[in-house]
Amino acid sequence: MFTAVLVAAIGLYLLRLTGVVGNNAVYIPTLFFWAMVAGGVLIGAGFALGGYCPGTSLVGLGSGRIDALVFFAGMVAGTIVFATVFGPLTGFYLAAKGPDAQRLTDLTDLPEWLILAVLVVVAALGFVLGRKLERARRAFHGRTSLHACGG
Q1: Do 26 and 12 contact (CB within 8 A), yes or no?
Q2: Mean pLDDT across the stretch 23-31?
Q3: Where are the domains of the chain?
């Protein structure tokens, strides 16, 4: 997801830089901190407990996995419950409004190209770290399975 957001951010930056897209062409909704925290916790818990995100649950569902069906049904049920109780939750949902400035460039006074460059470096470091951790995991499991077999 981080990669997709970063590619979109770079693409929008280049489109704005070349004049294809205007500076205010993309609507950025106001953030509300408590709603974001509650939604993040609930969605994160669902992803962690279910082992899926919405896209992968559809792939799992398409491959006939029962756990994906249960996850997908829970996701749909959660959406219906939220839509049903949204009215009474409106006060909470609209509490703790964030700043009017929604872009990092507005919040930090840093140039957009610098923010994007830093994010590209963070992504690259994340990929390098992920690759190293994956290799370490494979090496660990490889040794464990050999040892368990008497090797």
Answers
A1: yes
A2: 81
A3: 32-97
